[in-house]
Amino acid sequence: MTTSSKVAAQAVFATTLGLALSFYMANNAIAQTTSNPATKPVSSPVKNPQTPAPTAVAKPAATLNAPAQAANATAQASPMQAVIAGHHGGWSMFLQNPCHTGQASPDLALATSGKVRWTFPAEGPIDSSCAIIKGVVYVGSDDGHVYAIDEATGRQLWRSRLGDKVKSSPAWSNGKIVVGCEDKKVYCLNGTDGKILWSVPTQDRVSSSPAVHDGVAYVGSWDGNVYAIDIASGALKWQFPGTAGATAVGQVGEQSTPAATVPPTSSAAADSSGSSPASNLNANNEKSNPNALTGGVTAHALSGGADTNTLAAGVATGTAQIKTGRITSSPCIGPGMVLATCHNGYIYAISMRDGSLLWQFRTGGRLMASPMIMDHTVYVGSWDHSFYAIDAASGKQKWRVNCPESFSISATGAGGKIFVGNDDLKLYCMDSHTGKLLWKTQINSPVPLLSSSPAIVGNMLYCGSPDSNLYAIDTRNGAIKWKLKTQRPIVSSPAASRGGILIGSQDGNLYCVN
Q1: Does residue 289 surpass a pLDDT of 50?
Q2: Of all residues in the chain, what percent carry a pLDDT higher than 90?
Q3: Region for 96 from its dihedrals, namely left if φ exceeds 0, alpha if ψ lies in -120 to 50, beta otherwise
Q4: What is the SS3 assignment for 216?
Q5: Is pLDDT of 304 > 50?
Q6: How far is CA 152 from CA 39, 455, 505, in A?
Q7: Three-state secondary structure string covering 273-311
Q8: pLDDT band at 299; cut points 50, 70, 90
Q9: In degrees rounded to 5, what are phi and psi of residue 315?
Q10: Nearest of 415, 378, 417 to residue 400 by alpha carbon
């Protein structure tokens, strides 16, 4: 596949990947081996190509999500630990919690066999990821419905019809379900019967998955805004950057201060599909990117945050001049801030209180992936082939890792490790403090992108792939333990519960695997 074809495919994967992949798979029958426990990961460049024996990993001290401490350690915990602890015991939104670490409660049992416990048939592809709370699974579908399903049996409890496709992942908060829809609205449903309680209109599609915290839902829109919505009433608390963001749909922003090491993004408008002309993306996204090393990974630590443009709230530039481009990712929550990644290549730290700009950080390519925050550090991958670690307080870069291809999916993390897929079709494990490569594992895909963020349960992680498989991978060494074949590509990210691993497929089924 040529580079220009890849750019076009990646630019629209949030809404049209299902059709493209289904067509591809229908015309390119690919033989898959679904029960090959001996599959070996691609390890970092060493002379001995064999997969190393599993390395003993010391169990991390009970911190995030620890059930024995969740109730009585909040006062002593860091702000991030307190946020995550508030979502202990379930999978209440995209990647489990508003920090998007993707780590399940440590008392959950591993899905060790890859056997299907039950399947639930929707009437359309399922790109949405599940929320799982108190024995009920909530998930959206391209058929326009949000479904509530019994976790134990797979039986439908109710379904609620919205105005268009539901690619957004539902988020649960105090008995209410908040979810975005392609009809340009954000909805709140009663978790008991699916009744629509309120809806908030935006000016374009909402495929972003809401992050909920302290009674407020934070969600992005293709209109270029982040919306903060009171869940109880549906009242809009603030939107960032405001109405100016809505007039900048699909545009690539311009920075006010030159970045030291990343080439500037183009200010050319995107075409109707949302993808900028290939000529405008070459500096950021071509395989000839000088920062990317073919077949390898390099880490760079920059002192002083050379790629950073930090701003105090209310500075002269103001949010009215910010042109974000589309927001298809899910915002994440940091201490007193909301973090949003945008198609203009910037990550914005926004005041949770009033929606003002705290700082902004510029990468050299589009940001399709959602940010993740862990240990006061923001982690995100970009289409400039780089993965970044950014100090949450200052917005200054801690380190950067260059990979052969772009990053299109969100990272997750636990125990000092970061897990993220690159569009070179490998899943990478990095040291969260230094960016050092610990291992990498090949993930099959018929197209040059990965579309499912990993979920972490103990020493295993689970992720889907456009090759139609759900993968179970050992977090200690990257060994693939098992694969489960579905009938169509997987765009959904998995969720974990006591019932097993739940993931949707574009074959229209929700799978519960244990």
Answers
A1: no
A2: 62
A3: left
A4: strand
A5: no
A6: 31, 20, 19
A7: CCCCCHHHHHHHHCCCCCCCCCCCCEEECCCCCCCEECC
A8: low
A9: -75, 175
A10: 378
CA distances from 205 to 164, 182, 201, 265, 324 (A): 10, 4, 10, 24, 15
Contact 363, 406 (CB under 8 A): no
* E strand or H helix at 7: helix 3-11
**Span between the terminal Cα atoms of the chain, in Å:** 36
Tokens (6 digits) for 405: 């291809």
Reading the block at residue 103, the tokens are: 């780590």
| CB proximity list for 311: less than 8 A, separation 6 or greater | 317, 357, 358, 359, 360
130 CB-near residues (< 8 Å, 6+ apart): 91, 137, 138, 139, 169, 170, 492, 495, 502, 503, 504, 510
CA–CA dist 94, 209 (Å, integer): 7
Alpha helices in 224-364 (DSSP H): 243-246, 278-285
d(CA 487, CA 466): 11
Dist. CA 251–CA 386, nearest whole Å: 22
Q: What angle do CA 32, 34, 38 make, to 5 degrees?
A: 110
Structure tokens at 309: 């443009």
Secondary structure element (H or E) that encloses residue 27, with its range: helix 13-27
What predicted TM-score, i.e. pTM, was given to this entire model? 0.75
Report the 10 Å Cβ neighbour count for 260. 12
* Residue 357, C-beta contacts closer than 8 angstroms, at least 6 positions apart: 240, 241, 311, 313, 315, 319, 322, 348, 349, 350, 351
In which order are the strands placed within the sheet that holds 455-457? Answer: 455-457, 460-464, 469-474, 480-485
Side-by-side strand order, sheet with 308-309: 308-309, 357-362, 346-351, 337-341, 332-334
pLDDT in tens, 478-514: 999 999 999 999 999 999 998 899 999 999 999 999 8
pLDDT in tens, 234-285: 999 999 998 543 332 222 222 223 233 233 232 222 322 222 222 222 323 3
Please report the beta strands in 288-410, taking only residues with DSSP state E, as ranges in sequence order. 298-300, 308-309, 332-334, 337-341, 346-351, 357-362, 372-374, 377-381, 386-391, 397-402
Q: Which helix (H) or strand (E) holds 32?
A: none
Task: Extract the tokens encoding 105.
Answer: 């409660």
Do 494 and 502 meet the contact criterion of CB atoms below 8 Å apart? yes
Interatomic CA distance for residues 68 and 222, integer angstroms: 41
